[in-house]
Design a protein that fits this description.
Blueprint: H1 3-7, H2 31-37, H3 55-68, E1 82-86, E2 92-93, H4 96-106, H5 114-117, H6 126-135, H7 148-179, H8 186-200, E3 208-210, E4 220-222, E5 227-228, H9 230-241, E6 245-253, H10 254-262, E7 271-274, E8 276-279, E9 282-287, H11 295-305, E10 311-314, H12 319-323, E11 330-334, H13 344-347, E12 350-352
Parallel strand pairs: 1-6, 1-10, 6-7, 10-11, 11-12
Antiparallel strand pairs: 2-5, 3-4, 8-9
Helix pairs in contact: 2-3, 4-7, 4-8, 6-7, 8-10
Length: 361
Amino acid sequence: MKAAVLLALLSFSAAAGPARRPARHRVKRAPQARLLTDPTAVSWPRRLAPGRWTPEAADALERLLQNLGDGTTGYSASDPPAAVFVLDDVAMNGSPGGVLFARLVADAGFSFDAAFWRQVPPHHGGPRARAGWQSFQGQPRSVWARDPHYLMYRKALHGADASLCRSGGKRTCARWRAALLTGLAEADLQRIARRVVGESLRRPLSPETVGDSPDDPSSLGVSMALRFVPEILDLTGNLRARGFDVWFFSHSSQYPALEASRLYGVHPTRVVGLRQKVADGKLTPETLLPVPLDEGLAEAVTLFLGRPPVLAVGGPADGPLLDYDDGSGLRLVLSGPDEAPTDSLRKGWLVQPPFSPVSAP
C-alpha cells in the first residue's frame, strides 16, 4: 500500500473532559462470549489475511467479525460494538510521541522560552542542554551536524529524556514529552506532526547515533522511525467494514497520535492521546485527564465510550484496559512469552507474539 494513499485521510479534532474511574465488570459469561470461543463457529471464506496471527488469535478474531458485526442479531448502528486498540508499540511499531520529540530536538523546533526550560530539570542535564542551544544560535542549519554545541545540546536533551523515562516510567515520560510542547502554536504543531509521522515511515529502522562527537563512547541510540502493522491495518479495516466502532488510545501527544491513526482509517473523533490545555492558540503544560496509560487508559475508555469494548488489544502493561470487561468480550495481549501477564490464561486473554516491523510502505 502506498504511503500517500494511507496518509490522504480526514483531518482531526480532539475531545476533552473530566475523568471518572471505571467500574470493574466481572460477570457471568454472556451467550455472545460462547460464540467467540466456539471453535466450530468460524465460517468460510475468512475475512482476515493470514498474516502473522497465531491460529488461536486468528480464529477468535474471525468469530468476532462473524458473530458481532453489522447484520447479526442484536446489532445496532446507533450503538455498535466497540473495538479498542493501544497505538504505541502495539497497533504501531514505535511511538508517535517519541518520534515527534526526536524530530523537534533535531530541528531545534521547540519554543525554547522560559516555560520550556523549566521543564528540563538541572539534575537531568538542563543547564548543559541550554548552554549548547544558546551557543549554536545564529549558525546555518547546514553546519549544525559539525557544531559541537549543537551536538552537546542534542545529546543532553535525549539524555534527559532517557533518564526521566527510565526513572519515572511511561506516565512521567509521556507527560514530560508533552510538557516540552509548551508554547508551540497548535496550528503549527498539527502541521509538524503530520510531516514528522509521514517522514518516520520512510526512516531507517536502525537507531540514529546521537553523541557529543562522531566517536563519542557514550553516545545514545535514538529511534526516528515508525511502521504500521499490516495485520492491525487489515483487522481495523475489516472491523470498520463490519460496522464496529474502532478506537485508538495513545499515551503520545494527541497531535502525532491523530496523524499515526490516519494510517488505519480511524476517524479522528475516535483517537484519544495525551491532551493538553490550549490558551490563545498555544499549548500549555497543563495535561487534561485522564492520561491514556495504566489505570488512566481504562478511565479514558469509560469516559469516551461509556461501555466495555467487545475487543481490546493491548500490550503487557495494559492490564487495566484488558480487565475492563463485562464478560462477553475478546481480550488480546501482544506480548512475548516471558512478558505476558501471569494471569492471562486464567482471565481468558489470548497472547499474540508482537509483530516485528516491516519494510516502509
